[in-house]
Amino acid sequence: MSNHILFIHGMFLNPKSWEPWIHRFETRDFSCSAPAWPLHEGDPRALRSHVPEGLGHLKLQDVVDRYVAELRNLDEPPILIGHSMGGLVVQILAAQGLASMGVCIASVAPNDLISADWGLFTNVLSIINPLAGQSPCEMTPESFHDNFCNTMTHAQAVEAFDEFAVHESRQVMRDSLRRIAHIDLDKPHVPLLFLSGEKDVIIPTSLVAKNADHYTDPGSVTARKEFPGRGHFLCGQPGWEDVADYVHAWILTQSDRETGDRLDRLSIADTPLDPAAAPIIRHFRIHTEPEE
Fold first, then answer.
1. In what order do the strands lie in the sheet with 101-105?
2. Which of 215, 194, 216 minimizes the C-alpha distance to 206?
3. Is 60 exposed, middle or buried (0-12, 13-18, 19+ CB in 10 A)?
4. Which pLDDT does position 267 carry in this prediction?
5. CA distances (Å), 19 to each of 65, 203, 291, in order?
6. What is the rounded distance in angstroms from the CA atom of residue 271 to the CA atom of residue 150?
7. Integer distance in angstroms from the first to the last C-alpha of the chain?
8. Which residue from 42, 103, 263, 291 puts its CA 20 to 30 A from 164's CA?
9. How far apart are CA 1 and CA 54, in angstroms?
10. DSSP character for 168?
11. Mind listing the pLDDT tens digit for each residue in 12-27?
């Protein structure tokens, strides 16, 4: 298993939102990177004050291409962790064989999957609004509190907006309803973990569950976890450490499973074995078996 984690931010955020996660995982012997979407590099305050030229024309394909280029430069497929639209990008990249495992947090769903949720509809419609043309979608402190930080206090939400929020391209959300976001969910895939917040008004738990359940290959690992009382900003709201630690534990579990699978594939009978090594191999297999 790769020990490199590549973080993918979602809409209205940039890599700064992953800095606490990067620090937490680097202290646990993972190497980490968090490349920005095109036109999302820099300090969020500066990006709000001076909207990058061409932001309104940014497409989902541009975002995917940025990460494909990053991943092609790595020696092996990394672990991908993505939030919201970043979770959809994780699924797209995993389907292309560019991940060793994927974690999709409050993920936008592929294949036009929807959930009968009023908050979901109103948020999507406000962003894709065809009457707005190619004008960027402006994030305000009020909208950030109502949609991202609805389980946080007003003061906490204002602080999070100031530190992390950026304006966004409407086209990326529009493209999530088009062919680029279609994935063959019946094919074998790398281990995928789907996380949701119980109080999320942008990506409801019901949609995350539907997304996970549509992966049908019986031989592939698909897991799901809901965090009670959390909103869409569960990666950054108070208690984000619990979410990060759950992800860390799941990654280690999958690593142990992968190690056990590799040992199961060893054809020891075809290879002369030093009898003195047998107890060591048996011990290693016993202690890398995943817990039930």
1. 31-33, 4-8, 79-83, 101-105, 192-197, 222-227
2. 194
3. buried
4. 44
5. 23, 23, 31
6. 60
7. 21
8. 103
9. 38
10. B
11. 999 999 999 999 999 9
Residue with tokens 């074995």: 273
Query: pLDDT tens for residues 202-260?
Result: 999 999 999 999 999 999 999 999 999 999 999 999 999 999 999 999 999 998 887 66
Q: Which two tokens stand for residue 42?
A: 């820099």
Sequence-separated (6 or more) residues with CB below 8 Å from residue 83: 8, 9, 10, 13, 17, 105, 106, 107, 235
In 3D space, the residue among 100, 74, 103 whose CA is nearest the CA of residue 2 turns out to be 100
Radius of gyration of the chain (CA): 20
Max intra-chain CA distance, the chain: 75
Tell me the average pLDDT of the chain.
89
Spatial separation of the C-alpha atoms in residues 181 and 64, rounded to whole Å: 10
And the tokens for 104? 């999709």
Residue found under tokens 């994030």: 139
Tally of CB atoms within 10 A around 261 = 11
Joined tokens for residue 145:
């509190």
d(CA 8, CA 13): 10
**Which class for 286: exposed (0-12), middle (13-18), buried (19 or more C-beta within 10 A)?**
exposed
DSSP single-letter state for residue 290: P
d(CA 20, CA 4): 16
- Provide the whole-model pTM: 0.87
Q: Which tokens belong to 243?
A: 């979410």
